[in-house]
Amino acid sequence: MYAELLTTGKLNDYLADLNEQAEAMFSRLVKQLSEKERVTEALKAENQMLWVQRMNNIRSAAMEIVSSEFIYH
Q: Which InterPro entries does its entry note (predicted)?
């Protein structure tokens, strides 16, 4: 597949499309997980360190999911 995309000149377009899909999935997952975990702007105002810790955990989890879907799949 790589050789075909490279020789036809479509590799960059293919990779750009995958990147857009991965970024969209990551954003969607972060939003969904933060809602599920009740990590809100109110929490951010009340306890910034806790908010940062939870958001970092959420981002890490989302990155693992995206990586497993797009990189390791």
A: TnpV
